[in-house]
Design goal:
The chain is mainly alpha-helical and 446 residues long. It folds into 3 domains: 13-102, Orthogonal Bundle (Fumarase C, Chain B, domain 1), CATH 1.10.275; 117-198 and 223-356 and 414-432, Up-down Bundle (Fumarase C, Chain A, domain 2); 359-409, no CATH class. 59% of the residues lie in helices and 5% in strands. β3 (192-193), α8 (209-215) and β4 form a beta-alpha-beta unit. The longest helix has 37 residues, at 109-145. The model has no long low-confidence stretch (mean pLDDT 90).
Length: 446
């Protein structure tokens, strides 16, 4: 096993395999970020007069070759190489000679993986925020489309008051804006540069940490080197919490779709091509896609607890426990992205049932409207309440006219204001173009 920290002697192979785990294969997902972080580090080393101009030229040429390989999907860490850090340095040394051995000057694998993950997480957060914005926009669009189509609202799983499909779609759209805001805020929290903190206590090399902050497009530096190392695990916890919040909202939405699609409710249907059948019951049109989405979003809710179980009560400094964070996070991050993409794909395929409220079974939902009619005629509210209660117990079929006019009600969805709320949240955060930052880095003059 090739390692940066060992002369390869006296290593127990079984222990070696256990401690390395899945690092190499997981590191292939962050390979480009390790290479980009190395580019910024090399430029800074040259500007700090720690390496020569010739060293920098060779290192940048070698790193660009590896980066192109990663971007083309052709970078694979071979068996026997511990991680991406080992792979990059060994490939460089093989391809450019002694200059490759100088790249690791003034850094540790601890701050190297910290910067790799932060670059990875911030780009992920930026991309998933864009997808969530797309879903919010689609939900608001559905709200406007079905603003006049009534449906019953429920409390305690019992018919309660009149609602509408517009109100239902719009409710999820606005609720997701809070989840969107948390994702954007998490990006800002994570977007601080740990590079140069080494193993968590800095080094005696005269490096320029603000320079790598600038080159990598971080919003600021993690100044205190211990604080920088302490964010291993905290970054994952913040990201996990943001995804969990989104999971809470969207898991509930998927449950609604499954419930409302059932024959007992019959509020909405899905096109045949978005459902599955039964091997024994020919009448079945199962909402499997929303059942799977429900499970996948619900799984995100547990993610913060999984992270916390790894990091809680660890003392200051690096611990190998942190290695397991990648195993927990990477799969769930991909799952969240895939699930969100499928939901965006099917959201406008939902077909709602019109004239639903003409069914006498839903007459009770209009009880508050009937109370209001009596109150408008001068009957005290409590007396009106008892009068309508008695009428409902005897059976009721008439449907009063709805007069909901206040903000956010079925008669006034305020979809434009909800759009403005989304834009207001967006305006609080920078509009990042990380690919532009990375292109400037890889094309930096040497």
């Amino acid at each position: 096993m090739n390692k940066l920290w060992s002369d390869q002697r006296n290593i127990n192979k079984r222990i070696e395999s256990f401690t390395i785990g899945k690092d190499a294969q997981l590191d292939e997902q962050i390979a480009r970020y390790d290479i980009l972080g190395s580019m910024a580090h090399a430029i800074m080393l040259r500007e700090s007069e720690i390496i020569s101009a010739d060293d920098l030229s060779k290192i940048m040429e070698g790193l660009n070759t590896l980066l192109q390989k990663a971007d083309d999907g052709n970078l694979q860490i071979p068996a026997g190489v511990e991680d991406i850090h080992s792979y990059v340095e060994m490939e460089l040394t093989k391809n450019i000679g002694e200059s490759g051995k100088k790249l690791h000057t003034a850094r540790s694998r601890n701050d190297q993986i910290l910067v790799d993950l932060k670059l990875f997480y911030r780009e992920y957060l930026n991309e998933i925020s864009i997808r969530l914005e797309e879903l919010i926009t689609a939900l608001i669009r559905q709200a406007e489309k079905y603003k006049d189509v009534l449906m019953p609202g429920y409390t305690h799983m019992q018919v309660a008051m009149p609602s509408s499909f517009g109100l239902w779609f719009g409710g999820y759209g606005e609720s997701l804006i809070h989840d969107y805001s948390i994702l954007k805020n998490t990006l800002e929290i994570i977007n601080h540069n740990p590079l140069g903190s080494a193993a968590g206590y800095g080094s005696s090399f005269p490096i320029k940490r603000k320079r790598t902050t600038e080159l990598l497009g971080f919003s600021d530096l993690e100044y205190n080197v211990i604080a920088a190392s302490m964010n291993r695990g905290k970054s994952e916890f913040y990201l996990a919490s943001a995804l969990a919040g989104m999971g809470v909202t969207l898991g509930k939405f998927c449950m609604d779709v499954c419930l409302y699609n059932s024959q007992n409710y019959g509020f909405l249907t899905l096109p045949d091509e978005y459902t599955t059948g039964s091997s024994i019951m020919p009448h079945k049109k199962n909402p499997d896609v929303f059942e799977l989405l429900r499970a996948k979003f619900n799984q995100l809710i547990l993610l913060p607890q999984e992270i916390n179980a790894i990091i809680q009560n660890l003392p200051t400094g690096y611990h190998r426990d942190y290695q397991l964070l990648k195993e927990v996070m990477f799969g769930k991050m991909n799952q969240a992205t895939d699930a969100l993409g499928i939901l965006i794909y099917v959201i406008d395929k939902i077909e709602v049932k019109r004239d639903l409220m003409k069914d006498p079974i839903y007459a009770q939902t209009f009880s508050v409207e009937m109370i209001k009619d009596l109150v408008d005629q001068g009957t005290p509210f409590r007396d009106a309440y008892l009068i309508i209660k008695d009428k409902l117990e005897k059976g009721l079929t008439e449907v009063p006219e709805l007069t909901h006019t206040h903000e956010g009600s079925i008669g006034s969805l305020n979809t434009e204001e909800i759009r403005q709320k989304l834009e207001k949240v967006k305006s609080r955060y920078p509009d990042y173009n990380f690919e532009k930052i990375f292109n400037q880095l890889r094309n930096h003059p040497v």
